[in-house]
Amino acid sequence: MDQGVAVTNISTEVRSGRGARQVNTLPLLLPAVILLLLWSILPLLRTIFYSFENYNLMTPPAVFNGGLNYRYLFTDISTWVAIKNSVVLVLGVLAASIVFGTLIALLLNNDFPGRNIARLLAIAPFFVMSPVAALIWKNLLLDPVSGLFGWFMTLLGLHPIAWFSTAPMLSVVIIYSWRWIPFATLILLTALQSLDTDQLEAARMDGAKGLARLRYIVLPHLLRPISIVIMLESIFLLSAFAVIYTTTNGGPGDATTTLTYLIFIKALNDFSIGSASAAGVFAIVLANVLAMFLIRAVSRNLQA
Amino acid sequence: MKQSALSQIIFGILAWIAALVMFFPILWMIVTAFKTEGQAIAIPPLILFTPTIQSFLDATANAGYLLFAMNSVIVSVGSTVLAIAIAFPAAYALAFFPTQRTEFTLMWMLSTKMLPAVGVLMPIYLGMKTIGLQDTRIGLVGLDTLMNLPIVVWMLYSFFKEIPGEILEAARVDGIGPRQQMWHLLLPLSGPGIASTALLSVILSWNEAFWSINVTASHAGTLAAYIARFSAPEGLFWAKLSAASVLAVAPILVFGSLTQRRLVRGLTFGAVK
Predict the structure, then answer these.
(1) What are phi and psi of A17, to 5 degrees?
(2) Which of A73, A226, A283, B260 is the most buried (most CB within 10 A)?
(3) What does the similarity note say (chain B) (predicted)?
């Protein structure tokens, strides 16, 4: 839930008492720095190394095979299906969380009876662990025989749908959206609370109608937090795993096999370490390109 | 004025509807947990029934469940204590003794969070197997600590930045060393900040599913792995599974509700406060 990154202003100004050089800060910093260095570099190097080997746990030993894993990776149609699925998942959930997250945050930011309780309820799904979220939806809500949605549909005279076989990706997107709309709500609500009320009041006095205030003051204020939500959620959603694992297992067929899930299948179902690692390197490159792109977008937004 | 009062009522009602729609799946899980297995799959769904705690008793009577619940506690608390112990001095140094490298160090720590876990699945999986850490609590504690370390450093850093440097400066002038400053000044001064940092770290590792599913089996799995794994064979036992799920998410729902606003800071690396 936390694959994330954002940018903040690090004030480099040296406040009084903070510039002292007498203290040797190296021993204080070193444990954290060394651990993170090892954590971020060693496994990565190992993955790159494996990716050039014909290495299957079932048929050892490992043999260097040049760039063969990569050639198979990019000529394999399932790679491209997986990338398409990842894009659909990320964009679907992002669209849902920006639209509904903003709407719900705006509604909850009003003054109304019991609003603190309403806020807690609206944000609660974010704290539900993915396997549980997956099970609630898979069994209690979306099951065609005993699920609540099926029953609603029969009430309306419709036939219940077997969600996970007729619309598997939509089902997965719905479950992830249910967890990530509240995240967007939480971030945007926090941002709204820091909005200068004097400015709004002044605009109101000048006769600006509700919609105009929303359009010219509130939404511009939300632009930056929204871009942060986009950034954090896309990085997380690219590595989305547990809901797919608990509900569809990547199926039916390859309908919900994202890039992350494809790597998992190659690695721990097929035990083909070499090709899983090649795909892993590709996923890492992809995530970093995305992160760079997003950080640039956000910092441009920061300066604006 | 009248119109504005009316619109306020309408918006209030809409807000409540939105909140209830979002919360409904959790509510329905809680309701199902108090049903018998037969009631749980009844159509039309039962709204009125005599609640029973049988499903909770059944779910917790399972030896596996208790072990996995204990693992969740040990792993989330253990990794949090470790992460804070490592991050506290680092955040102290970064916040109170900034150099030209400070910004780079912080951004670099942040960048380690961008590495998709699945990209290093194989080396971690095989490496833990080699050194005998697979399916051990220590192994999982280590993974969660490293995963959360950047967030913990950032969050502590942002809280330390709010403490006036003059206080520590005065202590320094009086000849009080960094160790005492951290113990006797910083720790009490940033109590609430540390508490919410710890809370976020506990929440993140309690809910962590990827590593728990992939590097544990029957010994060190957490509740996230338990529920993900047993979903298939026990898929028919909705009431029992719901009861197990309620117990698994209840503590985090409470923790999360306690410090919502402060959590935002950690979740967004200080970008939204």
Answers:
(1) 85, -5
(2) A283
(3) Belongs to the binding-protein-dependent transport system permease family.
